[in-house]
Amino acid sequence: MSEPAKPAELGDGEHLQVLGYEDSFNRSMSLWANFALGFTYLSPLVGVYSLFAVALTVGGPPSIWWIVIVGAGQLLVSLVFGEVVSQYPIHGGIYPWARRLWGRRYAWMAAWVYIWAMIVTITAVAEYGSGFAASLFGIEHTADTTLWLTLGLLLVALAINFTGTKWLARVARIGLAAELIGVIGLGLYLLVFQRKQEFSVFFDTMGVEGDGSYVTAFFGAALAGLFLFYGFEACGDVAEEVESPARRIPRAMVLTILVGGVSALFSFGGYVLAAPDLQAIVSGEDADPIPAILEATLGPVGAKVFLVIAVTAFLSCVLSLQAAASRLLFSFARDGMIPGHRWLSRVTEGSKVPANALIVACTVPALIAVLVWLNADLLYPVTAFAVLGIYVAFQMVVLASLRQRFRGWKPAGPFTLGRWGIVVNVAALAYGVFAMILLATPGASGDVVTDWIVLIGLGVVLATGLAYLFLARPDRKSDAPAGDAIDVAERLRAHRGEPVAEPTAVK
Length: 507
Fold this sequence. Notes:
Layout (H helix, E strand, L loop, with lengths): L11 H8 L11 H12 L1 H16 L5 H23 L6 H8 L2 H33 L6 H20 L2 H29 L20 H7 L2 H4 L7 H4 L7 H30 L3 H6 L5 H46 L6 H4 L10 H20 L4 H28 L14 H20 L7 H25 L12 H11 L12
Helix pairs in contact: 2-8, 2-12, 2-14, 3-12, 3-14, 4-12, 4-17, 4-18, 5-6, 5-17, 6-7, 6-14, 6-16, 6-17, 6-19, 7-14, 7-16, 8-12, 8-14, 14-16, 17-18, 17-19
GO molecular function: transmembrane transporter activity
InterPro entries: AA/rel_permease1
Subcellular location: Membrane
């Protein structure tokens, strides 16, 4: 008796051909480089530093548990994305996934929201990074210096991105090292050698609830986790530059969530336990506590070293964001779905990067930075919209994936959850709806614009996107495949020599 032949593995180029594309990029990105790209985009150092004081003021030390809650929810989302990218290892991430799972119009709106969310995220990260750069170089932190340092970070990242995937991967790995030193290394040092609080403090509300319920205060601090856990999808944005992407990218996404979550816990927990006057931070008297904690625990020289690490992490984060945004624009343009698509879809001969898309991913954030320079109050709404916009785009893919499963889709990539796929998909969607409700809930300051600014920003983006979609009809200008998840799954199985199931009738 002879054993049945094992299904043949598809090469990267052959897999792309089944999807309707040809290999046009250098596949020089390894699993670890791909993980580094996603991790530096997620950037726990940036997230923790930006929201540490706010989280403690609103929710007290127990707000650290949002890192665990959101990390678990986004892990479910990353598993859904893993199955999708394993079947569709193509550039662009959110856009091609939504297109192949649902259709052209649906994908256009998902990409429109996601593009703007990414672009304003680039601006916000560069703006926050400028403060670290000013401190490092001993420059007075004014509106003018913030603008020039922000533009400098954007241009340096653009120059590195122009050199090609190899340098992108190298700098991403350097950024990964900086992040790990800055969050895990420093966090462990603070926990072990500089602890001034007991571990029980993470169950002590320290009176932030006032006369009301702590549940309200705890939910108000949710942004401490929600702001941290996106960026893992960037691993899929550069799929055509990764070796064996159908296998490696799902692993890189899961690693990004797990390592990012552990890093954030060490960092946030370390700062809380090492704070000399925690009550002053919780009460809001110390609005920027991390520099003081560093100065008190590391000394002037140690604090300076940390600033070098922080600036490196911020630069790497901007670099990864630009790379991901440019690949999304390229993917959008390659299918003829955006104005100037021929120009945006060009790939350079030497470095094999979408240079024109990279220019847009640098120029538009630079223009927004100028607007922030003219009106500093714009930075908060820019950042707030970015978070909700990202989550909306994510859940559009999760919903489209669940819809296809109900129609009979069984993911055909090397990474699959099997019978658990639909359970994980439903749980990921439920988590996503919960997260979006938390993000979209209006504030209670009494100022209408301040309280509703996140929904106002999302409303403007959705309204302009729908207007362009129905007036210009970009979906009619593209004949690229759409809504073909079931068909592609069967073709992939056929190419591998696996049994092909009979098509499921859909009413």
